[in-house]
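sorry to bug you again but im stuck and you know this stuff better than me. theres a chain ive been looking at and ive put its sequence and its fold in token form underneath. id like you to explain what the token line says about the fold, in plain words if possible. anything you notice is useful, everything is just below.
___
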Amino acid sequence: MSELKVIANTPSPRTRQSLATDLLHAGLTPGMNVIVHSSLSSLGWVCGGSVAVVQALMDVITPAGTLIMPTHSGDLSDPKTWQAPAVPTNWWSTIYETMPAFDSKVTPTRGMGKIVEAFRTWQGVVRSSHPAVSFAAWGKHAEEIIFNHALDNSLGENSPLATLYELNACVLLLGVGYDRCTSFHLAEYRVGGTQQVSKGAPVLEAGQRVWKYYSDIEFDNDCFVDIGRDLENTGHVKVSKVGSAQTKLLSVRNAVDFAVDWLTTHPR
């Protein structure tokens, strides 16, 4: 959405203070552990843009809680699997040999939005080590959440998602839909039966860049909107608004457990 259209659809500027007030009304509380999936343009015109949004989230959560965001970099992957667009096959060898290794401090996100990019570089934010599906965190449990993010089965039992489940954290969908709810992927592992695939990315080992292959499942979020809709119908999702954005606040544990049951009864 163009900035001109965002301005035209915003009755008054959103500010750090107004967003914090809205976030409190949406169900966020000081000391909460929450993973946020977001769209800046959905909020309306924000004075200070993504920086003001991160400030508002931190104002509400406080250092007694933990703010988490997915900082995925899907372009650090095997060029053989790229689509929309694909690249010529005669480029592959160059990509394997020269793509910069993942660096948690400098590797940018891809397709995650401006709020995530502002958060990723924030002082005090730490990031997990997975080259494709890292997470960043700030606050009380930040180190615990991002520590020891396994390369294999990247969103499974040895990932930040599993730690968020154990911490009984919440998910905030801030102007985005259930298709962005990464926590549902943990349910895919727990149900089982999903096709295993080989993936690859450039990583650092002993200070040296290497192309590393790892094992994972074939992710499928095509049903996530249906899972979210059915979960919402149980009354376990708080729907509200922050600025112009519709928000949905739900428990990671409820979301994963519900998705496990849903996937078990709706085989794909």
The mean pLDDT is 96. The radius of gyration is 19 Å. The longest helix spans residues 252-265. The chain has one domain: 3-75+101-195+222-265.
